[in-house]
C-alpha cells in the first residue's frame, strides 16, 4: 500500500529557481536533498546554527575534554576524547 503524499510548497529566489527548473525530477531531487540535510543536522542546535545559553554551557563543559582534531583519513574536524589513554 502506497503512503499518501503530502504537498508542501515553498518559495525560492530567482537564481535557485533557475538552477532547479530544468532538473528531470525536481520533486525527487528536493525530497532527497531534504532527507540528506535532516540526516546531517547538528544534534545540539537541530540545524539552527545557534545554541541556547544552556546548550552553550553544556558544550563549553564538554569541549574542555573533547577538542577538535583533523581526521588522518579525510582531514575533516572530529571530536576526540582527551581522557582516553591510548
List the total number of helices. 3
Extract low-pLDDT stretches.
none
Q: Report the sheet with the most strands, covering strand number, pairing sense and barrel closure.
A: 2 strands, antiparallel
| Distance from first to last alpha carbon | 52 Å
Total separate domains: 1
Rg over C-alpha atoms, rounded to the nearest angstrom: 20 Å
- Helix percent reads 25-40%
Spatial sequence of strands, sheet with the most strands:
1-2
**Mean pLDDT across residues:** 90
The best one-word shape is elongated
Walk me through the structure.
The protein is built from three helices and two strands. It is mainly alpha-helical. It has one domain (14-79). A two-stranded antiparallel sheet has the order 1-2. Strand 1 and strand 2 form a beta hairpin. The radius of gyration is 20 Å and the shape is elongated.
Topology:
Blueprint: H1 14-21, H2 26-39, H3 53-63, E1 68-70, E2 77-79
Antiparallel strand pairs: 1-2
What structural keywords apply?
two-stranded antiparallel sheet; 86 residues; mainly alpha
